[in-house]
User: Fold this.
Amino acid sequence: MLTDTRGVYIVTQTPFAADGATDLASIDTLIDFYSSHGADGFTVLGVAGEAAKLTPAEALAVAGRFIARAGGKPVIVGVSNASVAQLAELTAQVMDLGAAGVMIAPPTGLKTEEELFAYFAGVFARIGDVPTVLQDFPFSTGVWMSVPSICRLVREFPQIQVLKEEDLPSITKITKLRESLDRRIAILTGNNAMFLPLEMGRGIDGPMAGFSHPEMLSGVYRLYTQGKVEEAHALFDSYLPLLSYENQSQWGVAVRKEVLRRRGAIACAAMRQPGPRLTPVDIGEIDLLLRQLQRRLAAA
Amino acid sequence: MLTDTRGVYIVTQTPFAADGATDLASIDTLIDFYSSHGADGFTVLGVAGEAAKLTPAEALAVAGRFIARAGGKPVIVGVSNASVAQLAELTAQVMDLGAAGVMIAPPTGLKTEEELFAYFAGVFARIGDVPTVLQDFPFSTGVWMSVPSICRLVREFPQIQVLKEEDLPSITKITKLRESLDRRIAILTGNNAMFLPLEMGRGIDGPMAGFSHPEMLSGVYRLYTQGKVEEAHALFDSYLPLLSYENQSQWGVAVRKEVLRRRGAIACAAMRQPGPRLTPVDIGEIDLLLRQLQRRLAAA
Amino acid sequence: MLTDTRGVYIVTQTPFAADGATDLASIDTLIDFYSSHGADGFTVLGVAGEAAKLTPAEALAVAGRFIARAGGKPVIVGVSNASVAQLAELTAQVMDLGAAGVMIAPPTGLKTEEELFAYFAGVFARIGDVPTVLQDFPFSTGVWMSVPSICRLVREFPQIQVLKEEDLPSITKITKLRESLDRRIAILTGNNAMFLPLEMGRGIDGPMAGFSHPEMLSGVYRLYTQGKVEEAHALFDSYLPLLSYENQSQWGVAVRKEVLRRRGAIACAAMRQPGPRLTPVDIGEIDLLLRQLQRRLAAA
Amino acid sequence: MLTDTRGVYIVTQTPFAADGATDLASIDTLIDFYSSHGADGFTVLGVAGEAAKLTPAEALAVAGRFIARAGGKPVIVGVSNASVAQLAELTAQVMDLGAAGVMIAPPTGLKTEEELFAYFAGVFARIGDVPTVLQDFPFSTGVWMSVPSICRLVREFPQIQVLKEEDLPSITKITKLRESLDRRIAILTGNNAMFLPLEMGRGIDGPMAGFSHPEMLSGVYRLYTQGKVEEAHALFDSYLPLLSYENQSQWGVAVRKEVLRRRGAIACAAMRQPGPRLTPVDIGEIDLLLRQLQRRLAAA
Assistant:
């Protein structure tokens, strides 16, 4: 059961070679890097993982490689798709490979809460009893789910065991959700962890986010769960300038991949096209931000 | 009480002079034209009335002139506004002038049903006990209201006495609404009356629409309410090519004003800028469509 | 070369069995039905063909069956996809099977004309020299292309040999396109052919649309190209009430499939879920509309 | 001429009393507060100033009070409006009162660059030779302007003397704009100044943003223009946790008003309804963030 999920779930990048081919070997080094910096689990094929640029066969190969290397740590696979048929096909395949569950966001174009419920009823009729992370990411999907709607989804569909909450403001929504949910589910938060320590204070079970320095995510999580609130904030604040820099949608993903490459986690920083490419000016800013980060960490 | 509304409500044009000034004198001829072709009431300052191009002072002057000339027939005033303060101000002013009620569509940007209810709670707290037409026109507002949501709004806010239904398909929604509403309200339909006889068969109380030939609207309504279903359809079908031609959003409004000008209802066909202007090719099509309409009417 | 395309291209339905499985046998009867009612070519896997509900393997099987049965008439395959990788894969597969070309609409989410050009540059770099129909269907994609933008796309990408124009108003846009395009391409129109005879008068090369009565599409096209303008309009007008009824987005597709089933073109009217299902009230309206159509045709 | 604008332009809040009435007296204390913390100019009636909740008369009164108290510092007035008539009316009124210029964002609903140019042509034909700040804030307006489009607007309309750039990523767009603009205009940046020092490095002329601690904005600006890049970043980073907390759209405005109230800048923190209200949990977070800010400033 994923309802007891807690800890640090890393939203993984998908490594590509310079020519745009998937780089499966880098998946191994990447997941080892994440694990050595405190990851408790992984979420693959998310928005930041460039999932929408893959063919179904590539998506399956990437997910399979992550699962194989995860060493038993849970792997959640993003299966959101405009086609329920494709969603169901990938779900069956990755569950066979050993995924811990799937993550589903409602598709762009759902217009009312009535349509939202009909959609998930249809999905769960197709995929059956699969542990599911409901992703609430309206700025990406264009589908806005109120707290009462999320509570009703959780009430009606036992498959929903985790909520990935990345509406904004997340903090006030988390408080309302914790007051309103009828049964215990895990709540993890995304938005590149931009509000992580405050979200911990509001009652989440950990981050589900990507960052070039996952040791910050795990560090803040450990400190906060040990009751060291001020220390958790101080650690977070040290990384915030870089975190905010990476929090610039797909362009921020390009930055993150460049820093992961510098740290040896992946062989090549390229994003699959169409996607942003970094300029020398961008690289100079990364240098500056990393230098300042090192200075703050040394001073602390 | 508007809950017993039935009949033919004409969505009025706002007449402008060639230089873009409001043409109040043409309001008198226009409303006389509508009345002589079977209008039972009027809806002014709607989308097709170019309301969004007026200053508050102009809007008030236009509404006041319509009310003064309506000869006691009910006038509904569209007061939808991104600013609740402006909505409330115009509502108070037109109710003082003798409007029968106001029409309100939810503003662009409302994202969940929770926000929808909060919005109308705030509006009705401000405007008080004013008879209100709820406008369901998602293609214009971007706000999609499900049947359960509309029923809940009607349940909670007694001010809602009429629903102007112009979602698509309207016909299936009307059937669901009639099955689901807890109390009797009037339902009138818009979308330029493109589905009027079918909507009559689904249980509406009449059209709330604009057309250059309002005698079609009143004719279909009378025939249908007399049980002459096939005749109602036949009359409607005769006008459908022209109706469909006018059903091309703001460009269709330009067509409608040109035909109304030809029929003597208004002095000038101009729309206030920014807005479409007709070309000689467009005028040639209007000539063709009117010629064919006359032929069909003569044959019938 | 598709630049000389002219005639009647039918946008095909995808037949499903009652349990939602693809019904390949009905593809044969369907394409024979279309051909016997005047089709000159076919467009498969469009929005009205429920393409978004298929897996990639199903899409390929459906397209292949249509191509095999088309008897040498050109088949255009819709390949629009949020993933360029999937778009390129399907394009290569269907061109191998003998498709005449592909149809591509810009994906939801493109925000500026700069992004639009970058998108098509990327697509054509991937798929190479494949004859392409550019689909301008903003109400479905959310991407609005101005006349200058379309002209620039046509100028820069020789692969674009046909424009499927289904913005609204289509008629004024067609006139501007014909005045502005630097080179000759074919223009066909969609929107369920709601403005077909007027669009013919504006200079299109034929319809690319679906309708339960394709004999209307071919009849209007033949009459108009023979210079019989008034007769073309008269024929069109006879069918307009039913055409308008089918022009209600996905619900209209359900109606169309029901009528195609009654006419023996497909075995089962079901849409794949999620999708609308017809009620007895809906069926009664279809009966009424077909009865009135027969009466008008008999009178003519 | 505003083309030489440089320095710190504060986006002002609009003070309200607890009952929702405008609090004009607090405008005086607020502008004095801003001035004493380094403001060089002001932008009033922006999105963060709750402009959309005011009546035209209230908007004029608020703008006039700000202008009267500004002591000769330039005041830019936001006049964006769905109605060009209202935009023109407010523009004429505030220019008469001594505004330095107006700020205009394209209205929601513009769909192509062709429509964008037609819109501004129409606006400038109405308002004439008024110094104008073009606001590029797509996340609020839904209108996305590419760099080539902005350059063309600047080329064609000499009234555009300043660009308020708040697309994301802003930094890469600023670099492209500085390379592409044909004539010198000022570029100021918004987005609550979340990327201020990096934007300074990309060539902007200062911030146009709101913050409860305007001394950060002016401090970063002064340090950066003195060539103290690392010091500018260090100062900025100290405030970043609070800045990010205030950068949560309208809820962030509620936070900002609460902090401004605590600092004596305004009498009451209330937002006009509909708008967010802070809870005790929110207040506790503000306490925490302010305490940590003080600690960092003391340590520096």
